[in-house]
Specification:
CATH class: Alpha Beta
CATH architecture: 3-Layer(aba) Sandwich
Shape: globular
CATH superfamily: Vaccinia Virus protein VP39
Distance between the termini: 36 Å
Low-confidence stretches: 1-27
Strand order of the largest sheet: 5-4-3-6-7-9-8
Helix content: 25-40%
Length: 239
Protein backbone atom coordinates (compact mmCIF):
# COMPACT_ATOMS: atom_id res chain seq x y z
CA UNK A 1 0.00 0.00 0.00
CA UNK A 2 2.80 2.41 0.89
CA UNK A 3 4.61 1.68 -2.39
CA UNK A 4 1.42 2.37 -4.34
CA UNK A 5 0.93 5.67 -2.53
CA UNK A 6 4.51 6.77 -3.20
CA UNK A 7 4.29 5.83 -6.88
CA UNK A 8 1.03 7.72 -7.27
CA UNK A 9 2.42 10.78 -5.53
CA UNK A 10 5.51 10.84 -7.73
CA UNK A 11 3.57 10.45 -10.93
CA UNK A 12 1.31 13.30 -9.95
CA UNK A 13 4.26 15.59 -9.24
CA UNK A 14 6.45 14.98 -12.30
CA UNK A 15 5.98 15.78 -15.95
CA UNK A 16 7.96 13.54 -18.32
CA UNK A 17 10.42 15.33 -20.58
CA UNK A 18 10.72 18.50 -18.54
CA UNK A 19 11.78 17.41 -15.09
CA UNK A 20 9.95 18.75 -12.08
CA UNK A 21 6.94 20.92 -12.88
CA UNK A 22 8.08 24.39 -13.99
CA UNK A 23 6.42 27.01 -11.80
CA UNK A 24 8.51 30.01 -12.92
CA UNK A 25 8.61 30.15 -16.70
CA UNK A 26 11.59 32.54 -16.82
CA UNK A 27 13.87 29.72 -15.58
CA UNK A 28 13.04 27.26 -18.33
CA UNK A 29 15.73 28.46 -20.72
CA UNK A 30 18.45 27.89 -18.09
CA UNK A 31 17.44 24.36 -17.19
CA UNK A 32 19.20 21.49 -18.86
CA UNK A 33 17.06 18.38 -19.17
CA UNK A 34 18.34 14.87 -19.73
CA UNK A 35 15.77 12.22 -20.73
CA UNK A 36 17.56 9.57 -18.66
CA UNK A 37 17.10 11.66 -15.52
CA UNK A 38 13.42 12.05 -16.30
CA UNK A 39 13.08 8.29 -16.78
CA UNK A 40 14.86 7.24 -13.61
CA UNK A 41 13.44 9.91 -11.29
CA UNK A 42 10.52 7.80 -10.11
CA UNK A 43 12.37 4.55 -9.25
CA UNK A 44 15.21 6.51 -7.61
CA UNK A 45 12.81 8.68 -5.63
CA UNK A 46 10.90 5.64 -4.44
CA UNK A 47 14.10 4.19 -2.99
CA UNK A 48 15.20 7.45 -1.40
CA UNK A 49 11.98 8.27 0.42
CA UNK A 50 11.75 4.72 1.77
CA UNK A 51 15.23 5.03 3.29
CA UNK A 52 15.44 8.55 4.72
CA UNK A 53 13.95 10.18 7.81
CA UNK A 54 11.01 12.29 6.64
CA UNK A 55 10.04 13.52 10.12
CA UNK A 56 13.09 14.94 11.91
CA UNK A 57 14.00 18.54 11.20
CA UNK A 58 17.28 20.13 10.13
CA UNK A 59 18.66 17.13 8.27
CA UNK A 60 21.32 17.74 5.63
CA UNK A 61 22.14 15.99 2.36
CA UNK A 62 25.12 16.51 0.07
CA UNK A 63 24.79 15.53 -3.57
CA UNK A 64 28.07 14.87 -5.39
CA UNK A 65 28.11 15.47 -9.15
CA UNK A 66 24.65 17.03 -9.43
CA UNK A 67 24.81 17.45 -13.19
CA UNK A 68 21.83 19.41 -14.48
CA UNK A 69 20.22 19.57 -11.02
CA UNK A 70 17.24 17.43 -12.00
CA UNK A 71 17.65 14.81 -9.28
CA UNK A 72 17.67 17.39 -6.49
CA UNK A 73 14.61 19.01 -8.06
CA UNK A 74 12.77 15.68 -8.02
CA UNK A 75 13.75 14.73 -4.50
CA UNK A 76 13.74 17.94 -2.47
CA UNK A 77 9.95 18.54 -2.56
CA UNK A 78 9.42 14.97 -1.34
CA UNK A 79 11.82 15.52 1.57
CA UNK A 80 10.98 19.05 2.79
CA UNK A 81 12.72 18.46 6.15
CA UNK A 82 16.08 17.87 4.45
CA UNK A 83 18.39 20.62 3.17
CA UNK A 84 19.91 19.65 -0.17
CA UNK A 85 23.44 20.81 -0.99
CA UNK A 86 24.05 20.21 -4.71
CA UNK A 87 27.65 20.16 -5.91
CA UNK A 88 29.38 19.90 -9.25
CA UNK A 89 32.88 19.95 -10.75
CA UNK A 90 31.71 21.52 -14.03
CA UNK A 91 30.83 25.15 -13.23
CA UNK A 92 29.01 25.45 -16.57
CA UNK A 93 26.17 23.43 -15.01
CA UNK A 94 25.67 25.86 -12.12
CA UNK A 95 23.01 27.98 -13.92
CA UNK A 96 20.90 24.87 -14.57
CA UNK A 97 21.27 23.65 -10.97
CA UNK A 98 20.36 27.10 -9.65
CA UNK A 99 17.35 27.34 -11.97
CA UNK A 100 15.94 24.05 -10.69
CA UNK A 101 16.67 25.12 -7.11
CA UNK A 102 14.94 28.48 -7.53
CA UNK A 103 11.92 26.70 -8.99
CA UNK A 104 11.62 24.34 -6.01
CA UNK A 105 8.40 25.09 -4.12
CA UNK A 106 9.78 23.79 -0.81
CA UNK A 107 12.86 26.05 -0.95
CA UNK A 108 15.21 23.44 0.49
CA UNK A 109 17.84 23.32 -2.28
CA UNK A 110 20.86 25.50 -1.57
CA UNK A 111 23.32 27.17 -3.93
CA UNK A 112 25.51 24.74 -5.90
CA UNK A 113 29.00 24.13 -4.53
CA UNK A 114 32.17 23.58 -6.53
CA UNK A 115 33.57 20.17 -5.51
CA UNK A 116 36.43 18.18 -6.96
CA UNK A 117 35.53 14.85 -5.38
CA UNK A 118 38.96 13.40 -6.14
CA UNK A 119 40.53 15.91 -3.74
CA UNK A 120 41.11 15.41 -0.03
CA UNK A 121 37.80 16.20 1.74
CA UNK A 122 39.63 17.79 4.68
CA UNK A 123 40.87 20.40 2.21
CA UNK A 124 37.89 21.18 -0.03
CA UNK A 125 35.40 21.25 2.85
CA UNK A 126 37.20 24.10 4.63
CA UNK A 127 35.85 26.79 2.30
CA UNK A 128 32.28 25.72 3.10
CA UNK A 129 32.72 25.25 6.82
CA UNK A 130 31.86 21.54 6.68
CA UNK A 131 33.29 19.49 9.52
CA UNK A 132 33.55 15.76 10.12
CA UNK A 133 30.09 14.29 10.60
CA UNK A 134 28.19 17.20 9.02
CA UNK A 135 25.79 15.27 6.79
CA UNK A 136 23.01 12.77 7.37
CA UNK A 137 22.97 11.67 3.73
CA UNK A 138 25.01 11.82 0.55
CA UNK A 139 23.93 11.10 -3.03
CA UNK A 140 25.93 10.20 -6.10
CA UNK A 141 24.14 9.10 -9.24
CA UNK A 142 25.67 8.01 -12.56
CA UNK A 143 29.18 9.29 -11.85
CA UNK A 144 31.31 6.30 -10.95
CA UNK A 145 31.38 4.79 -14.44
CA UNK A 146 32.12 8.08 -16.25
CA UNK A 147 34.96 9.33 -14.08
CA UNK A 148 38.46 8.15 -13.14
CA UNK A 149 38.93 5.68 -10.29
CA UNK A 150 40.33 8.56 -8.23
CA UNK A 151 36.77 9.92 -8.04
CA UNK A 152 35.52 6.65 -6.57
CA UNK A 153 38.31 6.79 -4.00
CA UNK A 154 37.42 10.39 -3.20
CA UNK A 155 33.70 9.67 -2.95
CA UNK A 156 34.10 7.05 -0.25
CA UNK A 157 36.82 9.02 1.50
CA UNK A 158 34.50 12.04 1.61
CA UNK A 159 31.57 9.93 2.80
CA UNK A 160 33.70 8.48 5.58
CA UNK A 161 34.66 11.98 6.67
CA UNK A 162 31.41 13.91 6.15
CA UNK A 163 28.69 11.44 7.12
CA UNK A 164 27.43 11.16 10.67
CA UNK A 165 27.59 7.70 12.27
CA UNK A 166 24.81 5.64 10.63
CA UNK A 167 24.63 8.24 7.84
CA UNK A 168 23.87 6.89 4.38
CA UNK A 169 25.47 7.26 0.97
CA UNK A 170 23.21 6.41 -1.97
CA UNK A 171 24.73 5.52 -5.35
CA UNK A 172 22.99 4.59 -8.58
CA UNK A 173 24.11 3.30 -11.95
CA UNK A 174 25.35 0.15 -13.72
CA UNK A 175 27.71 -2.16 -11.79
CA UNK A 176 29.63 -5.38 -12.15
CA UNK A 177 28.86 -8.05 -9.54
CA UNK A 178 31.77 -10.30 -8.51
CA UNK A 179 33.55 -9.55 -11.77
CA UNK A 180 30.50 -10.34 -13.90
CA UNK A 181 28.92 -7.68 -16.08
CA UNK A 182 25.57 -8.38 -17.68
CA UNK A 183 23.53 -8.17 -19.83
CA UNK A 184 25.30 -7.68 -23.15
CA UNK A 185 24.03 -4.10 -23.40
CA UNK A 186 26.03 -3.22 -20.27
CA UNK A 187 29.12 -4.97 -21.68
CA UNK A 188 28.82 -2.88 -24.84
CA UNK A 189 28.23 0.27 -22.80
CA UNK A 190 31.34 -0.45 -20.71
CA UNK A 191 33.44 -0.83 -23.85
CA UNK A 192 32.08 2.40 -25.31
CA UNK A 193 33.04 4.23 -22.10
CA UNK A 194 36.59 2.87 -22.23
CA UNK A 195 36.84 3.85 -25.89
CA UNK A 196 36.05 7.42 -24.88
CA UNK A 197 38.36 7.46 -21.86
CA UNK A 198 40.56 4.60 -20.70
CA UNK A 199 40.04 5.69 -17.07
CA UNK A 200 36.27 5.24 -17.32
CA UNK A 201 34.26 2.04 -17.02
CA UNK A 202 31.59 0.23 -15.06
CA UNK A 203 32.81 -0.49 -11.54
CA UNK A 204 32.66 -3.76 -9.64
CA UNK A 205 30.68 -3.64 -6.41
CA UNK A 206 33.36 -5.77 -4.73
CA UNK A 207 35.99 -3.13 -5.51
CA UNK A 208 33.71 -0.41 -4.14
CA UNK A 209 33.14 -2.44 -0.98
CA UNK A 210 36.90 -2.43 -0.40
CA UNK A 211 36.97 1.37 -0.67
CA UNK A 212 34.00 1.56 1.67
CA UNK A 213 35.68 -0.70 4.23
CA UNK A 214 38.75 1.56 4.24
CA UNK A 215 36.49 4.45 5.25
CA UNK A 216 34.37 2.72 7.91
CA UNK A 217 31.45 2.26 5.51
CA UNK A 218 29.54 -0.89 4.54
CA UNK A 219 27.08 -1.83 1.83
CA UNK A 220 23.72 -2.47 3.49
CA UNK A 221 21.32 -2.73 0.56
CA UNK A 222 21.34 -3.40 -3.18
CA UNK A 223 18.20 -3.01 -5.28
CA UNK A 224 17.86 -3.97 -8.94
CA UNK A 225 16.50 -1.04 -10.94
CA UNK A 226 15.13 -0.54 -14.45
CA UNK A 227 17.45 -0.64 -17.48
CA UNK A 228 19.99 -2.92 -15.75
CA UNK A 229 21.01 -0.41 -13.08
CA UNK A 230 21.29 -0.82 -9.32
CA UNK A 231 20.53 1.40 -6.35
CA UNK A 232 23.12 0.87 -3.61
CA UNK A 233 22.81 2.02 -0.01
CA UNK A 234 26.01 2.42 1.98
CA UNK A 235 26.09 3.21 5.69
CA UNK A 236 28.80 4.68 7.88
CA UNK A 237 29.39 2.46 10.88
CA UNK A 238 28.91 3.72 14.40
CA UNK A 239 32.25 4.35 16.03
Amino acid sequence: MRFYFISTLLRCEFLPGCGFIHRKSNYRSLKQSHPSADRNCIPISEQIILQVDLKSGDLQLLEISSGSGQHAAYLAPLCPNIKFYPSEFDRRLFPSIKAYADDCNTNNILEPLYVDISANPKEWTKQYGFKSGTFDYMLNFNMLHISPWSCAIGLFRSAGYLLKPSGKLFTYGPYKVNGILEPESNVNFDQSLKNRNIEWGIRDIEDLKKLAEENNIELVKSVDMPVNNKFLTWMKRRE
